[in-house]
Amino acid sequence: MNAPEKPTNLRQLRDSKWVSKPVKQEIHDNFVRMLASGAELFPGLVGYEDTVIPEVNIALLAEHDMLFLGEKGQAKSRLMRGLTRFLDDAIPFIDIPEAPFHDDPYHPISGVCRDFVTTHAEEEVPIGWWSRDDRYAERLSPGTKFADIIGEIDPGKLAGGVSMSAEQALHFGLIPRMHRGIFAMNELPELDELVQVGLFNILEERDVQIRGYPVRFDIDVLILFSANPSTYNRSGKVIPQLKDRIGSVIHTHYPRDRDLGIQIMEQEAGIRAGEIPVIVPYFMREVVEQITIQARKSKYIDQQSGVSARFSIANYRTMIASARQRGIVLGEEPAVPRISDLGHLYASSLGKLELDLMGSHQMSERQVLDAVIAEAIRIVFEEYVDEHGLAEISEIFGRGVKLEVGDMMPSAKYAELLKRVPPVWDKAFEVNASESVAVRASCVEFVLAGLYAMDRISRSQHHGRMTYEVG
Fold this sequence. Notes:
By secondary structure, this protein is of the alpha/beta class.
Protein backbone atom coordinates (compact mmCIF):
# COMPACT_ATOMS: atom_id res chain seq x y z
CA MET A 1 0.00 0.00 0.00
CA ASN A 2 1.42 3.36 -1.07
CA ALA A 3 2.08 6.00 1.60
CA PRO A 4 -0.20 9.05 1.39
CA GLU A 5 1.23 11.99 -0.50
CA LYS A 6 2.59 14.85 1.56
CA PRO A 7 0.52 18.06 1.68
CA THR A 8 1.61 20.68 -0.86
CA ASN A 9 -0.26 23.73 0.48
CA LEU A 10 -1.20 25.16 3.86
CA ARG A 11 -4.84 24.05 3.67
CA GLN A 12 -3.86 20.43 3.01
CA LEU A 13 -1.34 20.63 5.86
CA ARG A 14 -3.99 21.73 8.34
CA ASP A 15 -6.32 18.97 7.14
CA SER A 16 -3.52 16.41 7.64
CA LYS A 17 -3.49 17.18 11.38
CA TRP A 18 0.29 17.80 11.31
CA VAL A 19 1.47 19.17 14.68
CA SER A 20 4.13 21.87 14.93
CA LYS A 21 6.85 21.29 17.57
CA PRO A 22 10.03 23.12 18.59
CA VAL A 23 13.06 21.15 17.39
CA LYS A 24 14.13 20.15 20.91
CA GLN A 25 10.68 18.78 21.66
CA GLU A 26 10.64 16.96 18.33
CA ILE A 27 13.99 15.33 19.18
CA HIS A 28 12.82 14.60 22.73
CA ASP A 29 9.62 12.89 21.58
CA ASN A 30 11.32 10.75 18.93
CA PHE A 31 14.09 9.85 21.38
CA VAL A 32 11.58 8.78 24.04
CA ARG A 33 9.78 6.59 21.51
CA MET A 34 13.03 4.90 20.41
CA LEU A 35 14.25 4.52 24.00
CA ALA A 36 11.01 2.87 25.06
CA SER A 37 11.08 0.49 22.08
CA GLY A 38 14.61 -0.68 22.86
CA ALA A 39 15.92 0.53 19.48
CA GLU A 40 19.65 1.02 18.97
CA LEU A 41 20.19 4.70 19.73
CA PHE A 42 23.73 5.33 18.46
CA PRO A 43 24.74 2.70 15.88
CA GLY A 44 28.48 2.23 15.41
CA LEU A 45 29.55 3.78 18.71
CA VAL A 46 31.69 1.32 20.67
CA GLY A 47 32.77 1.61 24.31
CA TYR A 48 30.40 4.41 25.34
CA GLU A 49 27.44 2.27 26.43
CA ASP A 50 27.97 2.79 30.16
CA THR A 51 29.64 6.20 30.17
CA VAL A 52 28.94 8.73 27.41
CA ILE A 53 25.63 7.55 25.97
CA PRO A 54 23.69 7.68 29.28
CA GLU A 55 24.79 11.32 29.68
CA VAL A 56 23.68 12.17 26.14
CA ASN A 57 20.35 10.47 26.80
CA ILE A 58 19.74 12.61 29.88
CA ALA A 59 20.71 15.79 28.01
CA LEU A 60 18.20 14.94 25.25
CA LEU A 61 15.46 14.34 27.81
CA ALA A 62 16.35 17.68 29.45
CA GLU A 63 16.23 19.36 26.00
CA HIS A 64 19.68 20.89 26.52
CA ASP A 65 22.18 22.41 24.15
CA MET A 66 25.35 20.31 24.55
CA LEU A 67 29.13 20.56 24.59
CA PHE A 68 31.13 17.41 23.78
CA LEU A 69 34.41 17.74 25.67
CA GLY A 70 37.25 15.39 24.81
CA GLU A 71 40.55 14.88 23.00
CA LYS A 72 40.83 14.33 19.27
CA GLY A 73 39.54 11.09 17.84
CA GLN A 74 36.94 10.41 20.54
CA ALA A 75 33.90 10.39 18.22
CA LYS A 76 32.66 13.87 19.21
CA SER A 77 31.63 14.72 15.64
CA ARG A 78 30.01 11.32 15.17
CA LEU A 79 27.96 11.83 18.33
CA MET A 80 26.78 15.24 17.17
CA ARG A 81 25.90 14.03 13.67
CA GLY A 82 24.18 10.99 15.17
CA LEU A 83 21.56 13.19 16.85
CA THR A 84 19.88 13.73 13.46
CA ARG A 85 18.36 10.23 13.79
CA PHE A 86 15.98 11.71 16.40
CA LEU A 87 14.58 14.26 13.94
CA ASP A 88 11.41 13.59 11.93
CA ASP A 89 11.95 12.21 8.41
CA ALA A 90 10.92 15.60 7.03
CA ILE A 91 9.10 18.71 8.23
CA PRO A 92 6.97 21.16 6.24
CA PHE A 93 8.02 24.74 5.49
CA ILE A 94 6.67 27.74 3.56
CA ASP A 95 8.20 27.19 0.14
CA ILE A 96 8.55 30.63 -1.44
CA PRO A 97 11.77 31.85 -3.11
CA GLU A 98 12.12 34.99 -0.94
CA ALA A 99 12.00 33.08 2.37
CA PRO A 100 15.35 33.31 4.23
CA PHE A 101 14.57 30.23 6.40
CA HIS A 102 12.61 27.01 6.34
CA ASP A 103 9.79 28.77 8.18
CA ASP A 104 7.22 26.89 10.24
CA PRO A 105 3.94 27.19 8.27
CA TYR A 106 1.98 27.78 11.50
CA HIS A 107 4.49 30.14 13.16
CA PRO A 108 6.59 31.98 10.53
CA ILE A 109 9.28 34.24 12.01
CA SER A 110 10.46 36.07 8.88
CA GLY A 111 8.60 39.14 7.68
CA VAL A 112 8.46 37.77 4.13
CA CYS A 113 6.64 34.59 5.17
CA ARG A 114 4.35 36.33 7.64
CA ASP A 115 3.27 38.82 4.95
CA PHE A 116 2.75 36.06 2.39
CA VAL A 117 0.55 34.02 4.73
CA THR A 118 -1.60 37.02 5.65
CA THR A 119 -2.09 38.13 2.02
CA HIS A 120 -2.82 34.73 0.45
CA ALA A 121 -5.48 32.09 0.87
CA GLU A 122 -4.23 28.91 2.58
CA GLU A 123 -4.62 27.00 -0.71
CA GLU A 124 -2.13 29.46 -2.26
CA VAL A 125 0.59 29.05 0.39
CA PRO A 126 3.00 26.42 -1.05
CA ILE A 127 4.45 23.84 1.32
CA GLY A 128 7.80 22.12 0.83
CA TRP A 129 9.39 19.37 2.92
CA TRP A 130 12.80 19.72 4.61
CA SER A 131 14.51 16.35 4.99
CA ARG A 132 16.22 15.09 8.16
CA ASP A 133 19.75 15.02 6.70
CA ASP A 134 19.52 18.62 5.48
CA ARG A 135 18.57 19.90 8.93
CA TYR A 136 22.10 19.51 10.31
CA ALA A 137 25.02 21.86 9.69
CA GLU A 138 28.41 22.21 11.34
CA ARG A 139 31.26 24.67 11.23
CA LEU A 140 34.91 24.64 12.30
CA SER A 141 35.72 27.58 14.60
CA PRO A 142 39.12 28.79 13.29
CA GLY A 143 38.54 31.58 10.79
CA THR A 144 34.78 31.74 11.42
CA LYS A 145 33.39 35.29 11.31
CA PHE A 146 30.22 36.79 12.75
CA ALA A 147 28.74 37.01 9.26
CA ASP A 148 29.32 33.30 8.66
CA ILE A 149 27.11 32.02 11.43
CA ILE A 150 24.97 35.01 12.49
CA GLY A 151 24.66 37.33 9.51
CA GLU A 152 25.60 40.61 7.85
CA ILE A 153 24.10 43.55 5.97
CA ASP A 154 23.97 42.59 2.27
CA PRO A 155 25.54 45.40 0.16
CA GLY A 156 23.85 44.09 -2.97
CA LYS A 157 20.42 44.52 -1.43
CA LEU A 158 21.27 48.03 -0.26
CA ALA A 159 22.37 48.90 -3.79
CA GLY A 160 19.01 47.60 -4.99
CA GLY A 161 17.23 50.21 -2.87
CA VAL A 162 16.40 48.20 0.26
CA SER A 163 16.58 50.27 3.44
CA MET A 164 19.42 49.37 5.86
CA SER A 165 16.84 49.28 8.65
CA ALA A 166 14.75 46.61 6.88
CA GLU A 167 14.96 42.88 7.50
CA GLN A 168 15.28 42.36 3.75
CA ALA A 169 18.71 44.04 3.83
CA LEU A 170 20.17 41.22 5.92
CA HIS A 171 22.08 38.18 4.71
CA PHE A 172 21.63 35.54 7.39
CA GLY A 173 24.38 33.16 8.55
CA LEU A 174 24.27 29.44 9.29
CA ILE A 175 22.45 29.53 12.64
CA PRO A 176 19.40 31.52 11.47
CA ARG A 177 19.33 29.36 8.33
CA MET A 178 19.27 26.26 10.54
CA HIS A 179 16.08 27.54 12.22
CA ARG A 180 14.21 24.31 13.19
CA GLY A 181 17.38 22.22 12.83
CA ILE A 182 20.69 21.38 14.50
CA PHE A 183 23.84 23.48 14.33
CA ALA A 184 27.25 22.24 15.56
CA MET A 185 30.36 24.33 16.22
CA ASN A 186 33.62 22.36 16.33
CA GLU A 187 36.63 23.48 18.41
CA LEU A 188 34.70 26.12 20.36
CA PRO A 189 37.73 27.69 22.16
CA GLU A 190 39.13 28.81 18.79
CA LEU A 191 36.04 30.88 18.05
CA ASP A 192 36.43 34.67 17.94
CA GLU A 193 35.09 36.41 21.10
CA LEU A 194 32.68 38.58 19.10
CA VAL A 195 31.08 35.47 17.64
CA GLN A 196 30.93 33.89 21.11
CA VAL A 197 28.94 36.92 22.29
CA GLY A 198 26.51 36.42 19.42
CA LEU A 199 26.18 32.76 20.34
CA PHE A 200 25.30 33.29 23.98
CA ASN A 201 22.62 35.78 22.94
CA ILE A 202 21.12 33.13 20.68
CA LEU A 203 21.40 30.42 23.36
CA GLU A 204 19.61 32.47 26.01
CA GLU A 205 17.50 35.21 24.44
CA ARG A 206 17.24 33.71 20.94
CA ASP A 207 17.94 37.11 19.41
CA VAL A 208 20.99 39.00 18.20
CA GLN A 209 21.99 42.32 16.63
CA ILE A 210 23.47 42.48 13.12
CA ARG A 211 25.24 45.82 12.59
CA GLY A 212 22.84 47.45 15.01
CA TYR A 213 19.76 45.85 13.48
CA PRO A 214 17.95 43.94 16.27
CA VAL A 215 17.09 40.45 15.03
CA ARG A 216 14.50 39.37 17.55
CA PHE A 217 13.43 36.21 15.84
CA ASP A 218 12.43 33.25 17.96
CA ILE A 219 15.21 31.19 16.40
CA ASP A 220 14.50 27.53 17.08
CA VAL A 221 17.71 25.53 16.96
CA LEU A 222 19.58 22.86 18.91
CA ILE A 223 23.18 24.07 19.26
CA LEU A 224 26.04 21.64 19.83
CA PHE A 225 29.71 22.31 20.51
CA SER A 226 32.92 20.31 20.66
CA ALA A 227 36.16 21.22 22.42
CA ASN A 228 39.44 19.82 23.76
CA PRO A 229 39.65 20.03 27.58
CA SER A 230 43.13 21.59 27.51
CA THR A 231 41.89 24.64 25.59
CA TYR A 232 38.31 24.78 26.88
CA ASN A 233 39.49 25.00 30.49
CA ARG A 234 42.19 27.56 29.74
CA SER A 235 41.22 30.93 31.19
CA GLY A 236 39.94 33.41 28.62
CA LYS A 237 39.48 30.99 25.71
CA VAL A 238 35.71 30.67 26.16
CA ILE A 239 33.81 33.59 27.67
CA PRO A 240 32.08 32.67 30.98
CA GLN A 241 28.62 33.80 29.81
CA LEU A 242 28.74 31.28 26.95
CA LYS A 243 29.89 28.43 29.22
CA ASP A 244 27.05 29.29 31.60
CA ARG A 245 24.44 28.97 28.87
CA ILE A 246 25.43 25.50 27.62
CA GLY A 247 22.97 23.06 29.16
CA SER A 248 25.07 19.86 29.39
CA VAL A 249 28.75 19.03 29.07
CA ILE A 250 29.36 15.48 27.81
CA HIS A 251 32.84 14.10 28.56
CA THR A 252 34.18 11.64 25.98
CA HIS A 253 37.15 9.29 26.38
CA TYR A 254 39.39 6.80 24.59
CA PRO A 255 38.54 3.04 24.72
CA ARG A 256 38.89 1.69 28.25
CA ASP A 257 40.51 -1.57 27.11
CA ARG A 258 42.44 -2.88 24.12
CA ASP A 259 39.75 -5.22 22.79
CA LEU A 260 37.32 -2.30 22.47
CA GLY A 261 40.00 -0.32 20.66
CA ILE A 262 40.50 -3.22 18.24
CA GLN A 263 36.76 -3.40 17.64
CA ILE A 264 36.66 0.32 16.79
CA MET A 265 39.80 0.04 14.64
CA GLU A 266 38.40 -2.80 12.54
CA GLN A 267 34.97 -1.21 12.23
CA GLU A 268 36.32 2.14 11.07
CA ALA A 269 39.11 0.76 8.85
CA GLY A 270 36.45 -0.84 6.64
CA ILE A 271 38.89 -3.20 4.91
CA ARG A 272 37.41 -4.45 1.62
CA ALA A 273 37.89 -7.96 0.26
CA GLY A 274 40.39 -6.58 -2.25
CA GLU A 275 42.51 -8.38 -4.80
CA ILE A 276 43.49 -11.25 -2.52
CA PRO A 277 42.05 -12.45 0.79
CA VAL A 278 43.65 -11.13 3.98
CA ILE A 279 43.97 -12.94 7.30
CA VAL A 280 45.05 -10.78 10.24
CA PRO A 281 46.30 -12.79 13.24
CA TYR A 282 44.79 -11.45 16.43
CA PHE A 283 48.22 -10.71 17.90
CA MET A 284 48.90 -8.32 14.99
CA ARG A 285 45.65 -6.45 15.74
CA GLU A 286 46.70 -6.31 19.38
CA VAL A 287 50.11 -4.90 18.49
CA VAL A 288 48.64 -2.14 16.28
CA GLU A 289 46.18 -1.06 18.98
CA GLN A 290 48.85 -1.35 21.68
CA ILE A 291 51.02 1.06 19.68
CA THR A 292 48.26 3.65 20.08
CA ILE A 293 47.86 2.85 23.77
CA GLN A 294 51.60 3.29 24.32
CA ALA A 295 51.57 6.56 22.41
CA ARG A 296 48.86 7.81 24.77
CA LYS A 297 51.15 7.01 27.71
CA SER A 298 54.43 8.22 26.26
CA LYS A 299 56.15 11.09 28.06
CA TYR A 300 57.56 12.17 24.72
CA ILE A 301 54.11 12.84 23.23
CA ASP A 302 51.88 15.80 24.10
CA GLN A 303 49.04 14.14 25.97
CA GLN A 304 46.95 17.33 26.09
CA SER A 305 46.52 17.00 22.33
CA GLY A 306 45.80 13.28 22.59
CA VAL A 307 46.37 10.42 20.16
CA SER A 308 43.37 9.91 17.93
CA ALA A 309 41.66 6.63 17.09
CA ARG A 310 42.54 7.61 13.51
CA PHE A 311 46.14 6.75 14.44
CA SER A 312 45.18 3.07 14.92
CA ILE A 313 42.93 3.05 11.87
CA ALA A 314 45.57 4.49 9.52
CA ASN A 315 48.26 2.14 10.86
CA TYR A 316 45.97 -0.88 10.53
CA ARG A 317 45.24 -0.02 6.89
CA THR A 318 48.95 0.51 6.19
CA MET A 319 49.88 -2.84 7.73
CA ILE A 320 47.27 -4.65 5.64
CA ALA A 321 48.33 -2.77 2.49
CA SER A 322 51.92 -3.91 3.04
CA ALA A 323 50.78 -7.52 3.41
CA ARG A 324 48.66 -7.21 0.25
CA GLN A 325 51.61 -5.81 -1.69
CA ARG A 326 53.67 -8.85 -0.68
CA GLY A 327 50.83 -11.19 -1.64
CA ILE A 328 50.39 -9.57 -5.06
CA VAL A 329 54.12 -9.45 -5.90
CA LEU A 330 54.91 -12.95 -4.65
CA GLY A 331 51.62 -14.54 -5.69
CA GLU A 332 50.82 -15.60 -2.12
CA GLU A 333 47.31 -16.16 -0.80
CA PRO A 334 46.15 -15.28 1.76
CA ALA A 335 48.02 -12.08 2.59
CA VAL A 336 48.96 -12.19 6.27
CA PRO A 337 50.46 -9.14 8.05
CA ARG A 338 53.77 -9.62 9.88
CA ILE A 339 55.84 -7.56 12.29
CA SER A 340 58.10 -6.50 9.39
CA ASP A 341 55.06 -4.80 7.80
CA LEU A 342 55.12 -2.37 10.73
CA GLY A 343 58.26 -0.90 9.17
CA HIS A 344 55.91 1.03 6.86
CA LEU A 345 54.02 2.75 9.68
CA TYR A 346 56.13 5.89 9.43
CA ALA A 347 53.99 7.00 6.47
CA SER A 348 50.71 6.68 8.38
CA SER A 349 52.01 7.73 11.81
CA LEU A 350 54.37 10.66 11.42
CA GLY A 351 52.42 13.90 11.63
CA LYS A 352 49.68 12.37 13.77
CA LEU A 353 51.82 12.53 16.92
CA GLU A 354 52.48 15.89 18.55
CA LEU A 355 55.71 15.70 20.50
CA ASP A 356 56.05 17.12 23.99
CA LEU A 357 58.72 19.73 23.37
CA MET A 358 59.94 19.51 26.96
CA GLY A 359 60.21 15.72 27.08
CA SER A 360 61.37 14.94 23.54
CA HIS A 361 63.85 17.72 22.76
CA GLN A 362 66.58 15.18 21.97
CA MET A 363 64.40 12.71 20.04
CA SER A 364 62.93 12.94 16.56
CA GLU A 365 59.35 11.91 15.85
CA ARG A 366 60.66 8.80 14.08
CA GLN A 367 62.71 7.81 17.13
CA VAL A 368 59.71 8.30 19.40
CA LEU A 369 57.59 6.13 17.10
CA ASP A 370 60.28 3.40 17.07
CA ALA A 371 60.32 3.36 20.87
CA VAL A 372 56.52 3.22 21.05
CA ILE A 373 56.32 0.32 18.57
CA ALA A 374 59.05 -1.64 20.39
CA GLU A 375 57.30 -1.22 23.73
CA ALA A 376 53.95 -2.28 22.23
CA ILE A 377 55.48 -5.47 20.82
CA ARG A 378 57.12 -6.25 24.15
CA ILE A 379 53.88 -5.83 26.12
CA VAL A 380 51.78 -7.99 23.79
CA PHE A 381 54.52 -10.62 23.50
CA GLU A 382 54.94 -10.92 27.27
CA GLU A 383 51.23 -11.72 27.54
CA TYR A 384 51.71 -14.56 25.04
CA VAL A 385 54.87 -15.76 26.84
CA ASP A 386 52.84 -16.22 30.00
CA GLU A 387 50.20 -18.13 28.07
CA HIS A 388 52.33 -20.31 25.79
CA GLY A 389 55.79 -20.58 27.41
CA LEU A 390 57.60 -19.09 24.42
CA ALA A 391 60.68 -18.16 26.45
CA GLU A 392 62.19 -21.59 25.74
CA ILE A 393 62.68 -20.58 22.11
CA SER A 394 65.39 -18.08 23.01
CA GLU A 395 67.54 -20.93 24.27
CA ILE A 396 67.97 -22.35 20.74
CA PHE A 397 69.88 -19.33 19.52
CA GLY A 398 73.37 -20.67 20.02
CA ARG A 399 76.37 -19.07 18.36
CA GLY A 400 76.03 -19.07 14.62
CA VAL A 401 72.24 -19.51 14.49
CA LYS A 402 70.72 -16.67 12.49
CA LEU A 403 67.26 -16.12 11.04
CA GLU A 404 66.65 -13.45 8.41
CA VAL A 405 63.16 -12.04 7.91
CA GLY A 406 61.63 -9.22 5.89
CA ASP A 407 58.38 -7.77 4.58
CA MET A 408 59.03 -9.08 1.03
CA MET A 409 60.39 -12.51 1.99
CA PRO A 410 58.20 -15.40 0.74
CA SER A 411 56.38 -17.25 3.50
CA ALA A 412 57.74 -20.60 2.30
CA LYS A 413 61.27 -19.36 3.06
CA TYR A 414 60.39 -19.19 6.76
CA ALA A 415 59.52 -22.89 6.78
CA GLU A 416 62.93 -23.65 5.30
CA LEU A 417 64.67 -21.53 7.93
CA LEU A 418 62.97 -23.42 10.74
CA LYS A 419 64.36 -26.75 9.56
CA ARG A 420 67.69 -25.59 11.05
CA VAL A 421 66.29 -25.18 14.54
CA PRO A 422 64.79 -27.66 17.05
CA PRO A 423 61.09 -28.66 17.19
CA VAL A 424 60.58 -26.34 20.16
CA TRP A 425 59.55 -23.82 17.46
CA ASP A 426 56.19 -25.57 17.32
CA LYS A 427 55.30 -23.52 20.39
CA ALA A 428 55.50 -20.37 18.26
CA PHE A 429 52.51 -21.53 16.25
CA GLU A 430 50.32 -21.85 19.31
CA VAL A 431 49.83 -18.07 19.29
CA ASN A 432 47.63 -18.41 16.18
CA ALA A 433 46.97 -22.04 15.29
CA SER A 434 47.04 -22.51 11.51
CA GLU A 435 48.56 -24.71 8.83
CA SER A 436 48.90 -21.71 6.47
CA VAL A 437 52.57 -21.01 5.75
CA ALA A 438 51.78 -17.27 5.63
CA VAL A 439 50.19 -17.32 9.10
CA ARG A 440 53.08 -19.40 10.44
CA ALA A 441 55.55 -16.89 8.98
CA SER A 442 53.72 -14.12 10.84
CA CYS A 443 53.97 -16.13 14.07
CA VAL A 444 57.72 -16.58 13.57
CA GLU A 445 58.27 -12.83 13.16
CA PHE A 446 56.12 -12.05 16.19
CA VAL A 447 58.14 -14.39 18.39
CA LEU A 448 61.48 -13.10 17.08
CA ALA A 449 60.46 -9.47 17.54
CA GLY A 450 59.15 -10.26 21.02
CA LEU A 451 62.36 -11.97 22.09
CA TYR A 452 64.32 -9.02 20.76
CA ALA A 453 62.08 -6.59 22.67
CA MET A 454 62.80 -8.61 25.83
CA ASP A 455 66.57 -8.45 25.17
CA ARG A 456 66.76 -12.24 24.73
CA ILE A 457 68.28 -12.01 21.23
CA SER A 458 69.83 -9.30 19.08
CA ARG A 459 68.81 -7.88 15.72
CA SER A 460 70.48 -6.14 12.81
CA GLN A 461 68.56 -4.37 10.07
CA HIS A 462 69.53 -3.66 6.46
CA HIS A 463 67.30 -2.46 3.60
CA GLY A 464 64.08 -3.75 5.14
CA ARG A 465 65.54 -7.14 6.10
CA MET A 466 66.16 -8.05 9.74
CA THR A 467 68.55 -10.69 11.03
CA TYR A 468 68.06 -12.11 14.52
CA GLU A 469 70.89 -13.80 16.43
CA VAL A 470 72.49 -14.14 19.84
CA GLY A 471 74.42 -10.95 20.61
